[in-house]
Give the backbone structure.
Amino acid sequence: MFKISLKGLEFYAYHGVYAEEQILGNAYEVNVQLEVLLLKNKGYELKDTVDYGQVYELIKQRMTKAEPLLENLVWDLADSLFTQFNLVNALTLSIQKKQPPLGGLAKAAEVELHVSREDFTKLPHV
């Protein structure tokens, strides 16, 4: 199993429950690790694997759509990644909100999801 990771993707976005977050925005960091089962091969080409440039663009596009809860954002991204990239068997995806409004000092609040394609498809959608 190959692991393809993008680490430290930085975005400025307007996610959050509070009105101030939706107006002022905040800095976010996204990390994604895709578990990909590739055929035994010594001469891979881009078409044989997951194009991490496309992964970045998918994440970048979704980060522009405001979402009150990071949990929903993580689920949406996981669904999009499994839908667009058939070779992905499992993923770990985390989103950190830098300096969240907690009434005290905190470097980040983070939501992380680790799920296989099989388990993801079995989960009920409400």
Notes: The CA atoms of residues 78 and 93 lie 8 Å apart. The longest helix spans residues 70-84.
